[in-house]
Structure formats: structure tokens, C-alpha cells
Amino acid sequence: MEFMKRAVLALVAVMMVGAPRFLSGQGSGAVSLQCYHCAPSDWRRVLVIGAHPDDEDTQLIAWLQRSGRAETAYLSLTRGDGGQNLIGNELGEALGIIRTEELLAARRVDGAHQFFTRAYDFGFSKSAAETFTHWPKDSLLNDVVKVVRAFRPHVIMAVFSGTPRDGHGQHQVSAILAKEAYESAAADTVRYPVRIFGPAWTPLKIYRFARFAPEGATIRFNVGEFNPALGKSYAEIAGESRSQHKSQGFGTLQRKGVVWDLLRRESSRVNESTDAKSEQSMFDGITAPAPGEIDVPAWHDSTQSAIALEAVADRQYVALGDSARVTATLYNRSRSEAEVRPQIGGGVLGDAVRVPADSAYSWTFRVRGSEITQPWWLATPRNGDLFSPPIPAATPEMIGNGDFRATAEDQRAKRGGAIALVRLPGGEVLVEHTAPIVYRYADPVRGDVQRPLAVMPALSVTLDRANELARANTPLERFFTVTLRSAIMKPQSVSVTLTLPAGLTADSATRTVTLDSAGTRAITFRVHGRLAPGQHEVKARASANGITYDSGFIPIDHDHISPERFYRPAVVALHSVDVKIPATVRIGYIHGVGDNVEPALEQLDIPVTVIEPRAIPTVDLLKFSTVVVGPRAYQASHELVDNNPYLLAYARNGGTLVVQYGQYEMTQPGMMPYSISIARPHDRVTEENAPITIIDAASAAVRRPNVITSADFAGWIQERALYMPRTFDERYHPIVALNDPGEPANRGGIIVTPYGRGLYVYTTLAFFRQLPAGVSGATRLFVNLLAMNGAEREARAGSGMGR
After folding, report:
1. Would the pTM of this model clear 0.70, i.e. be above it?
2. CB proximity list for 231: less than 8 A, separation 6 or greater
3. Do the beta carbons of residue 171 and residue 160 sit within 8 Å?
4. Cα atoms in the Cβ-side hemisphere of radius 13 Å centred on 180
5. Which residues contact 234 (CB under 8 A, 6 or more apart)?
6. How far, in Å, CA of 73 to CA of 159, rounded?
7. Which pLDDT value is given to residue 86?
């Protein structure tokens, strides 16, 4: 904490001398502060607390941090694991990795710090009480107290109110915990001993955002203010920051001009006698530390910014226990000679060397792979809906993103990077410069690509999916692909074996291949046989140099975030489902958001053709018995909206059109055959075990080819339904009714209407979660929806089911 105290006082001292200026904290991982017109009393620490990676008010954060008004941090209770994904098919913990990195990318833009608790986002909940059944309240409050005591905010900003009007139960909980930390917990050294939680801290004020209820606002300010030093307004910076949440589709305009933000003062310990609506600033009543209270170090000379340090490894991955060669280069781009003490390995510094002006000095060292590089919160299994870190989460480093005064890159550099101490002429101290170790190459399209050096097992072994479907008691023929990734810098012979459940055999028991130096190779096994109903496992293992490996990683790599790896065992849970499928079913599938339904249908041996939205006018849709539109597909694709008339014409001409849930875009004219309404907030059933009542037992949806009973609604995951229609045209025919406890039944889970010679089916049941997870009953019900038109015809003709 001493560094932050010194930096605070240094900043205050500089600002007291007069003219506004651009201030930059170089070295030691300090986050830059740009101050245009701050007064000494304005500089404080503000902690914003929300529930999810996209809850933060980026406009307020940018306005506070980039102006120098306050060192600012955002505490997200979760990593957004329970959300959906507009940029890929990662869900659950893999999505949590993406959204974590998106938050860190946002903080790189707005300059603020980022913290998390151990909470796993289990999905939508409707109340704080429900949320606390997943997250033990004491455990989450422990984490919030650790962050508050580490960051020491003068002001806490709760995004939400902590009441039912917040909607999401996780939103409510974030505000409840923020208030408890403010009111007493952060200062209570009996419940929260200093030895574990750090020194006590008493925040001085607590506000909450008033954008959702502007009539209750007590203060407003222009976050669209322009900063000449940056050449941008804070709202423009906020737009860029907000747009890092790409997996949530939160691309945002960079707004110019006046942009008002609204806050409501909830409580104050420093100016409680002042009417909240009379405040001129959220910092009213908070005084700055006097310059003599703590030591003031020499502030770094601006020429320090002319020093650049790079560290490039000879490979992207280093095997656990092996070492990589690193070339570090310090560039002295100043006009003066620099004194440099380089790190020569293992944190040991070498002798000082002189680096002339406008020149560079290089040295090499080796770095040992001592620990697998992966998201720390996933290194061990969760404890219920709390992540369980491999070491006690008793320090802010385990709750937050490391040293909260440093950027993510600074932290990576300090954990395993290059370090050099540099002194320029006239400098009184050696200034620490750090650089992460990267593997660097030129991509023909993207140009300079840098990937952090990562430690991995000598051999990574993965299967394509963690869950797959199969038809029970039916001949099965399937290909399982094992992907090998080597971190060994020489060729090696690898033997790969599949372990299969009873009833299945492979075309070969073991394959032996030669894996190139640091190479990747895929080995495909043909598996055939029959499976009894139930869950079975297919396991892969590989042996090399007398060592057996049975796990590996899935790369998570998107252009806007730092690459990560998601480790999992090389095991496929094979869910064998007793399901009948009409021989006439032929599916055209239009992908939606975070949509893994189409591969699940292929695993059932259903013929599936993927249709790109832009290609719809050129496709003979009538060759398909059913066309399926994935979840939120209309929201994600303007081309699909434009070409929707072709899909409706397909239904009118005799096809079956099955549309999985959408959001409010589905209420627009022309989207569906007849109108529906969706309430705000929307109706949903979040309890995955909530009863589902079949209200039309004669419908083909629940009778043919699979007879659906209450047993088929058991074992669902995360949620039942979402964005359910509150009302719908009388020409729609409802099939099921469902509701969470204590709420009225909603009949919008499946609605069906004849449309011309065909059939239109709209379902808000969460099939996009159930089928990829191998849920048997949901699979049987979805197959019935695909076959509805044909089943009705065959029933009228007295035909039986094929296949």
C-alpha cells in the first residue's frame, strides 16, 4: 500500500503547483492518470460494485479514472459464466474466461482496476434469496471485504439497489453486499480479522446508480466532458471500453457532446448533515491528505517513457519442467545515456551496464516452466457455485487481478517476465521496467502478433467435446478425434488409446504417431457398436517417453482479448437416449447465438444442412422437412431479418419452421406469422426443476414419435425457458405451461400454428442448453418438434414410424 500512498501524494503535490497537465506514472506497473482540471480535494478512490462483467458504468469509470478525479476499480461478483455468447460457442466456464478477459480489455481502455469474487455465475435468478442458495452469503461477503480493505475506497458505488426492482437476483445480491461492506463489515476486525482480511477500512460514502430511476437522483455530472490532453471525451473512451464486451453484443457508439450520468447518495459519514441534492460533487466532505503526512518520492522524469523493454521467447509453449530461451532487449530512445541493471534469470539482477542514447542492449536468459498456465480460478474444481482457488483466497491478489495498481500485462510480466532497473542522468533512483515474455511472429494479415509464453504439459490430449448424444439400442458409427499438442522441442513417438464403454469397439485399439517438434496432430478413431440407454464415457490417453497423459486444453483465442486455455480431462460423456426419429426428417439449420444444437442433432444421425442467413434466397428450402432457427438468431443477423419472408413462405408452402427463442425483436411486425408480446422485464422460468404441465396431451409435440411424460422434464440444467411471450395471437396453440414457484403459469414455452400448408413452431424452452449437455427428455421433445408436420400427416394416413 505504501506505493499507492506515495503515488497519491506525489500526484497531489504536482497538481498543487499550478497549471493543469498530463501526468503519467511510469514503472512499477502504475496505471497512467490523465488530469486535465483536477483539484487536490478531488483525487480519491472509488470502488464500483456490480454482479456481472457488463454491469459496470463505463462512462462513470472513465470520467473518474482518466480525468484523475479518483483512482477507480470495478468489482464484479462473477465472471459472467452463465450468460450467452455472440462471438462463439463457448458457454459456462469457457465463456467465463472470455468475459473475464473482456473486462480486463475494458480496463486497459479506461485505466481502472478490476476485481472479482469467487462466485460462479449459475444463471438467472429472480431473487436475492434464491441467489444466496447458490452463493453462501458469508463467503461472498468475505471476498467483498477483502477487496474493500485492499483497495481502500473512499466512495463505494453500488450499481443496483438491492431490491426486487433490480430484477436479476444476482444484481440484488451485489448491492446487498456493497451496503453491508460499507455499513460495518469492512471495519469489523472481530468478524474479519486483520490477519486474514487486511487492515480495517471505513468507506466514507456510498452511492448507487440512478439511471434506472432518474427521479431519485441526487447528483448529476457531464461524463461527456472533453479532455484536450487525450483528444477525446470520457464518453468516447467509455464507448471504446464498453465495446470490449463483444461476447455480449455490447458494441457502443463513442459519443461526443454532453452526456449526463446520475447518482443517488445512499449514505455519508462526512457530510451527512448536507442535503444530498445540494452536493456539488460526490467527494463533498472528503479532504485530501496533507503533503507532509507521508513521504513524497521523486516523480519520474518524463524521459523515462523513452525506455522500452521487450522479452521474446524462442517458442510459444514451454513444457512443465523444461525451460525456454528468452532474449530481452532494452531500447534507450532518449537523448541521454542510461544505466541499466538487467535481470539475468530467476529474478537475479546482473551488473550495471551503460546503454548509449538512441541504442539498445540485449541479453538472454532461460525461464523454467514451473506451473501450468491457466486461469487460476479453474485450476481446481468448484465447490458448488463458488470457485475454489488452489491456495486460500485470503489475499487481494487471489480475488482481484493481482496487484490492483498494475495492468494485466504488468502482472504477467512480474509473475514471469523480464525486469530491468534503469537510471537516466540526474535520476536519483533506479526505475523498474517490466515486460511480459512473449512469442512473436508476423502474420500476413494481422501483422505483429504476440502471444504470452505459456507453460503446458509436455503433451496435451483433448477430445472435441465434453458431451455428445447417441441413439440407444441403434447401430452407432462415430468418429472420435484426439488432438495432441506437444511442448517438447524435438520429435517424439506417441501412442494414443481410446477406452470405450461396453457395446462399442474401435477400428484400432492403439495408434502410434510421430509428433513433430512443438507440433499439433489430430488422430481420428472410427467407433461402432450399440449402446444401452444411459450415460457412458469415452476416454483418451496418450503415452510418450514412458509417461501417460489424459488431459489437455482447448485454446480460447479471440482478437480482442488475451489468449487463454481451458483445461479439461480427455473424456466424452456419451449420453445414450431412447429416441425415435422419423425417416423423413431432413433439417436445414440456421445458427443462433452460442448455439451447439446443430452438432447435437447430427450426433443423433439426423441429416442436417447448415444454411447461412445470406444464402437463404438461393436455397431450395422445400427439400427440408424442417427448417430450424437457432436462439437469438434474428438479433444476431440482419441478413436473417431481411430474408425472413423466405422462411415464412417456406412454411406456407408446406414446410415446418421451428424457431427457438428470440428477444424483443420477435415482437416486430413480420417476424412471426402472428403477433406476440413480451413483458419488460421478460417472463422466464429459471428453476430447472420447475414443474411443466402438458396442456394439450393430444398434440404431436408430446405424442409422436416419442411419448413425452413428466420424466422427460427431469435433469434439465440451468433454466427452463426465457423471453416467454406474455400474450400471443389466438391462432397460436400452446402445448405446455410452466412457472417458477409462486408465479402464474405461462403458456409460452411452445406455441404452434398452422400456416398455409405448413406449420410454424415457436419455442422458448432452453433447448440450446439441454441438447449440448445430453439431457435425454429435452432431446426427445425437440425431436418431436422437428417432426410435427410429418407426424400429423402420418397420423392422418395411419402410418407408423420408421427408423
Report:
1. yes
2. none
3. yes
4. 18
5. 59, 62, 63, 66, 67, 223, 224, 225, 227
6. 13
7. 87
CA distance 482 to 763: 35
The per-residue b/e assignment along 243-277, b for 16 or more CB within 10 angstroms, e otherwise, is: bbbbbbebebeebeeebebbbbbbebeebeeeebe
**Residues 12, 5: Cα–Cα separation, whole Å:** 11
Q: Which residues contact 259 (CB under 8 A, 6 or more apart)?
A: 59, 222, 223, 224, 233, 235
- Which residues are within 8 A (CB) of 174 and not within 5 positions of it... i.e. 6 or more apart? 49, 50, 51, 55, 77, 158, 159, 160
The CA distance from 120 to 81, in Å, is 7
CA dist 163 → 77, 166, 590 (Å): 17, 6, 39
pLDDT digits (tens, 9 = 90+) for 788-800: 986 555 444 443 3
Q: What is the model's pLDDT at position 344?
A: 79
3-state secondary structure (DSSP) of residue 642: helix
φ, ψ (nearest 5 deg) of residue 56: -70, 150
What single DSSP character describes residue 772?
T
SS3 743: coil
Cα separation of 336 and 330, whole Å?
Answer: 14
φ/ψ of 13, rounded to 5, equals -60, -45
Q: How far are the Cα atoms of 306, 605, 703, 765 from residue 781, in angstroms, in the given order?
A: 65, 16, 9, 10
- The tally of CA atoms less than 13 A away on the side-chain side of residue 591 is 18
Residue 663 · residue 623 · CB < 8 Å? no
The Cβ of residue 214 has, within 10 Å, a number of other Cβ atoms equal to: 11
Distances (CA, A) of 677 to 631, 648, 651, 727, 744: 17, 19, 22, 5, 16
* pLDDT of 248 above 90: no
Q: What is the mean pLDDT of residues 567-589?
A: 97
**Other beta carbons within 10 Å of 40:** 16
Radius of gyration (Cα) for the chain, nearest Å? 29
Residues 57 and 261: their CA atoms lie apart, in Å, by 9
